Amino acid sequence: MMNIPCPFCGARNESEFAYGGPVKPDRPDPNAVPDEDWTAYLTRVPNPLGPVQERWHHVRGCGTWLTIWRDTRTHDIVEGPSDAG
Amino acid sequence: MQGDRLPEGGRIDRARPLSFTFNGRALQGYDGDTLASALLANGIHLCARSFKYHRPRGIVGLGVEEPSALVELLGDDASGNRPATTIPLREGLVAQSVNCWPGPGFDLGAVTQLIGRFIPAGFYYKTFKWPNWHLFEPAIRRAAGLAAAPTEPPAKGHFENRYAHCDVLVAGAGPAGLQAALEAARAGRRVILADEGVEAGGGLLNRRLTISGAPALDWVAGVVAELEAMPNVTHLQNATVWAYREHNYLMVNERAPDHPGLLERNWRIRAGEVICATGAIERMLVFGNNDRPGVMLASAAQAYVNRFGVRPGKRAVVFTNNSSAYAVAADLISGGVEVAAIIDSRAQVSEAARALVPNVEILTGHVVTTTRGGRALKGVEVAPLAGGASRRIACDLLAQSGGWNPAVHLWSQSRGTLRYDETLATFLSDKPAQAVTCVGAANGEIALDDDSDDLPYAIEPLWRVEQARGKAFLDIQNDVTVDDVHLALREGYDTVEHVKRYTTGGMGIDQGKTGNINIIGTVALAQGAAPGEIGTTTFRAPYTPVSFGAIGGLREESVTFPYRHTPITEWNHARGAFMYEAGARWRRPGYFPQAGESFQESVNRECRAVRQIVGVYDGSPLGTFELKGRDVGKFLDHLYTNIMSTLSPGQVRYGMMLSDDGLILDDGVVLRLSEHRWIVSTSTGHADAIHAHMEEQRQTCFPDWNLFVTNVTSQWNNATICGPRARALMEALGADVDLAPDALPFMGFADGQVADLPARIVRVSFTGELSFEINVAPRHMRALWERIMEVGAAFDITPVGSEANHVLRVEKGFLSLGHEVDGTVDPFDLGMGWVMSKKKPDYLGKHAVALRRAGTRDRRELVGLRPEPDQMIPEGAPLTQGGDRKPTEGLVTACVFSVVHDAWVGLALLENGQARHGEIVHVRLTDRTIPARVTAPVHYDPKGERLRS
What we know:
The structure holds 2 protein chains of 2 kinds. By secondary structure, chain A is mostly beta strands. Helices cover 11% and strands 34% of the residues of chain A. Chain A has one domain: Folate-binding fold. In chain B, a hairpin with a 2-residue loop joins strand 36 and strand 37 (677-682). In chain B, helix 11 (482-490) crosses helix 12 and helix 18 packs across helix 23 (802-812). The longest helix of chain B has 15 residues, at 687-701. The interface between A and B is medium-sized, with 26 and 23 residues.
């Protein structure tokens, strides 16, 4: 049971949240990029061994969608890389 | 008659005798006994048969490490495979042995012993692999025995969960844990101290030690009293810390909490810091027939004498490789047990150790090679470690100590690393992964410090006795021998994780607490490596078995996930509605049966009422969201496939939402209340998902847009009046808005008063009939509903349930998520390509649908079906060419009895269906095929004249 920091509510049990999946790159303009790039955007989900940026929805709390970096090996919530968005 | 009970001593209450039954024999023990100590007091050593070979087995240990004495409890506390050493004795306890029939003294299964040499490790895998292991597994499991799981929940009492936070969680209330808890508590920190024993003290309870010159248990009592007085301390006994999860989240299973009717309580604790004061567990030595009843861990024999006032044997031999067994020998002698000899594999023994047992023969550099006896120990054979003539010593108790393993289970569950310590010949905590520390024996401090009279700990490892004769068990519970491990290594299972799985060593209920490190040592010896290079297998939760009831607690279905009700639930009940869940936990009326009516008759009557006169249903569960802000229009344009921003205030528009990969998420209607206020209405089942979707889009994609989403599902209820006479009934109810078709047309709405209640009237239709959806605040819903019934009586108004609604929408070909929309179809497949805007350059799902439709594969398209001859088709049935065993070309998504056609009508997804109207297709069932005529998907009023009327 992870302890997830909600920016509004503080650290809360994982059971209050719904998993929102890894953060994908920004949505490209489908009319401006090749179809291969568009399909890649739709279907390729980051799945690293190590820190991954991901979203959680505080659905049984304040309703916030928040972003954390989580180490997939340990569940530790970590600092993201300094150049991350 | 407790023949082996000592005349005095022990932490038992001799004034409170308890009666219990074991294998049908009425016996007696005392309050404070475990089932194991009470059995020993009654002279019963043989209490189980082993799992695989059905060898006779006795009591080996003292607590959770017990590998051997498994019993089944009957009666009120029915449960299987419980170590007798962990069952507190109580009045009326009924227990029986497992793994044997008819009893442990005469066990028919024991014939497997005779063929034991033919069933080595992996025997079952190798022998029963063709055609399929699962064919044989049930029979083998039955033969392997173990107790049956109880078929009924506990008759008396219940389980519960509790959540807690603390600064410091101390696992274990032995000397180190008590000291740690005391220091943390004195520093003002919130402390939870949890210990698996019935009373605090840990190993001190089993010893006769002094601390600072006073009995150690006096020190324990003093600390417990001080902790008791501090409000920042929660002290739990009978409470095992059984799981250590991520983010310092731990589970504690508290048994028999001090509360009437409560069987167990499972704590889920978030701790700032964890202190593992989990002590150490003594390991077995590995020699021939080391499983015979009467062979016991030295610390257990010591505890039975000191703590329970029980004599575990009359004449003992002590076999050890370390210094801790000397105090055991001394305590056995104090308890009236004759100690025939101490067999020590080490060459040197300290003077201090010898001084504890001045009159006992000590054979240094010797080992026990095998034991003698049948169902009870009669003696041991002893030989020099270096080789030489053996000698027999008669005894009925062999107290053995292979050294001590710090209980690093929780530490390891927390992902802390381990290192092998040569001096202690065991694994110790190394680098932490979370905020956790090991202290005391769990940290390798096996003996107490100088302030006590404990002997300093010294050990020389003896992983197995080379000269062992007979089966030498590494894992008593799963009958894993040294030969099995050697076989596994020969066959290429050469890492300790593979050895574990191939031999099942350490995979029993005890999880190898007394034997795993001997397996590691045996592998190390065979491979010429150090145990530290072999490493341990992974420690996983639970530390000890936990009942499912404790994990579940009170969370049975409707408590965990309550039903949702509308304000007229009580009216529905009073009306005799058949209620069930219809999407997203809403309890809704399925239909309103009248006396003598069948299900189908009720549904037909409700449908006829809507088609011919007027009906009313409760549409409250539909998802309702209010969106406010300057950017709602463009937000909805992005979410919906059609254009919403052009909607004028006062208008309603149907819309469909896709995910960005082109799958249909939901359909519903949008109302524009004013320039910047909108209502989004969704299906019932997907309301929560659509809410999350809207918030995700708003918060993560368009955080700077001026826009708010508020869930107002429970702020609005509605009664929907539908049928040819709906307008007449509305007028009879009294509405202060013009209801004429020109003034309030289909897909329009108006705010006003209906039946003197503030209401919003919306002209949408889910039935295909003229409909007025009267939306009111929940506090007015019941009054509105009753008024409709009252005024509607003159119209023969009929309340309509979910079943009739389903029939009516299928007749109209209206899609239903989960039926016609299954995650593969797009709006074009449903004949609704018009809903996908060509004008908008981009919206969620547009490009994905275009890409998918550019493919050449045939699409499954929505069609109507008319079975010929008329009959019901099961929903979900496949369509194949000719009804033959061929690839499916579609499926039946719905089939209902249409009162309009007086026949069954259906909807289906069919390959190229839109071009196949008029064809006959075939429904393939297991026992027959049903031909059906393909039609347009609208069975009723295809021009929509009625709903626009």
